[in-house]
Amino acid sequence: MRKSPSRWEVAPWSRLRIIRVMLGVVGLCLIAMTLEAPNLFQPRAQLKAVGASTQQELREEIPAKPRRALIDGAKEDLSSTRSPQHHGSSSSGPSSSSKNHPQEEQGLPKPRPVEGGEEERSSPPPASSATALLHAARAARVAGAKMWQLVESNFAASPAAAKQHSSNLTTLASSPPRKNSQCPQVVIVSGDELRGTANVAVIPCGLASGSSVTLVARPLKAHPENSPHIRMLPDGQSDVMVSQFMVELRGLKLVNGEDPPRILHVNPRLRGDWSGNPVIEMNTCYRGQWGAALRCEGWLSPDEEAVDGLPRCENWLREEEGSSSKGSSSNAATRIPGKNANTWLNTWIPEPEKGGLDWRYPFAEERLFVLTIRAGWEGYHVSVDGRHITSFPYRTGFILEEATGFAIGGDVEVRSVVATGLPSSHSVVSSDLPLEESEQYKAPPLPGGSVHLFIGILSASNHFAERMAVRKTWMQSTSIRSSLVVARFFVALHSDLEINLQVREEAEYFGDMVMLPFIDHYDLVVLKTVAICEYAIRNVSAKNVMKTDDDTFVRVETIANLLKNTKKAPGLYMGNINQFHRPLREGKWAVTYEEWPEEEYPPYANGPGYVISSDIAEFILQQQNNHTLRLFKMEDVSMGMWVVQFNLAQAVHYVHNLKFCQWGCVEDYYTAHYQSPRQMLCMWDKLQKGDAQCCNMR
């Protein structure tokens, strides 16, 4: 009798059917891959060019030769330049480097043959994006033309009078400090007085080591927020309860159009943080760029991270710990209760330490507190109600003497602010470096032939101190003084005539500035990069072109030698190269889909310092003349996009190196970003002694 199959067995015909189905699925996948194969070789960020008609309009709005609108203080001619300025740096990306191999060739896009024509390689971006850029260029050009006419008429009519406009900036660097009467050693401001000054207490001469600022205040009760900034709304909820406030040490010597530097930002979050727990977050911010935050969440920091011997974060009782703390007492085994306390098992379990952690998060809603920030030797120390809470190490570029404001904001009621131990005079070396009319800082004449490297420096019209710091430091490099390397500032016009007259006089005297006939605008930074390429090719015949910013310290000799030792190949693109970066769609630096429809940026080098070879610069000018150069407001991303387009026809030699530092300064740097004028002087002094070291100033 034949045995019937078990219900767990599979009949042979069913097994065959399964195999057939699987083969069919594999076949469909192969067909789909075949159809999609051409797309596999497309760059990750599709290249789209501005349409000819729109680009033609843009060129018409930016005249090629605006009479004397484009000038160099050395009377050099720049034919057909278009651009304005500002710092267009983007965040750095995750890339690896090696000490033994500081430069690496990346596996980035390879060249592929051009198929069809320009129409097949690129397509116009959304009309709204090109229109917005066109409107910005038109407004900048119209306002710039009027402003330049005023500048030239005032300057030509009476150069002596024009020079008088800048006399308040032309002083000796060794000017004496302010009198003691202007630098009080104690500042006391009541809550009522603060409300009349937008909750900002002025500290005229900043802080010094040993200074302290004390705040007496009361956190307000939590309130609902439907769009909180410190956490996401939970699913199904329309709001979340939030109670937070911030105190900041700020630099109040503002440059028009820029946020004040946040030298120290302390943000207690009683309720509403994304973690669900009360935390204290500390950070710094310079020109809109936040550093890495220090978050204190109730855990004790490691001893090796101590600041002046104090932990960066103290521990406190967390909500989930109840009456136990994180530490030896909370981790100890539970002792057996009972009448016989000396039971044999209890002898193996240690006694809880007496005097263990018995205090919670230092702030509570509607409870008065006293917060003190003290400036130590290595960093700031924050205490609440007399107990040390957190310490924050000093960061590069943020100087105690520049902390001239103490700001309070958020859900808090201020009673008073008291600052003590203040300096009796200003520091002799101020970050507001005055202009010095010295022959030493004038630009040397342009060489008759080509140069190995041209450095274009983006600068805002009112960044007088930054430009003077560059002139006194790395622009004194041997290669620049001997004209083997040429460096120029690229400066657009300001909306203030007085500032423009000062800039005009500065350019006339130092001979190292290229003035552009536009009112400065962040969205038009990319046009300045085009101007740098054009000047480098048409005025100095540079073999390599470097773009940097006026707050970046450049090791000129090191980069020049690096270029000489780099494998001779066309299409050089050198810098701190990012890959697979995505646009930010929210926040202050948001990029809309109309501005950038792709999901990723092309590979690009960070804006504070990168180098391209002359053939890439010539390609950019050719594309601009052909009206096929796509323009995007972030200049470093634009350069990466143009290089990818160049790579379609000719190989690109990508050289990545983390020593082109985007965020501050690293050991043995090539470029160091976000450097104050005072730090520039310090770094130059160290470099002259043979040490390429950062200056973490206090």
Automatic annotation (TrEMBL):
Q: Specify residue ranges for compositional bias: Basic and acidic residues.
A: 112-122
Which GO cellular component does the record give, naming just one?
Golgi membrane
According to its UniProt record, in which pathway does this protein act? Protein modification; protein glycosylation
Topological type in the membrane:
Single-pass type II membrane protein
Any GO BP: carbohydrate derivative biosynthetic process
Q: Report the superkingdom from the record.
A: Eukaryota
Q: Which InterPro entries match?
A: ConA-like_dom_sf (IPR013320), Galectin_CRD (IPR001079), Glyco_trans_31 (IPR002659)
Q: Which residues form the Galectin domain?
A: 199-420
The compartments listed are:
Golgi apparatus membrane
**For this protein, what is any one GO molecular function term?**
hydroxyproline O-galactosyltransferase activity
Q: Say if the entry is tagged with keyword Manganese.
A: yes
Where are the membrane-spanning stretches?
21-41
Keyword presence, Glycosyltransferase = yes
Which residue intervals are annotated with compositional bias (Low complexity) in the record? 80-98
Region (Disordered) spans which residues?
Answer: 76-131
The alphabetical list of record keywords is: Glycosyltransferase, Golgi apparatus, Manganese, Membrane, Signal-anchor, Transferase, Transmembrane, Transmembrane helix
Recorded protein name is: Beta-1,3 galactosyltransferase-like protein
What species is given as this protein's source?
Answer: Selaginella moellendorffii
Its lineage reads: Eukaryota, Viridiplantae, Streptophyta, Embryophyta, Tracheophyta
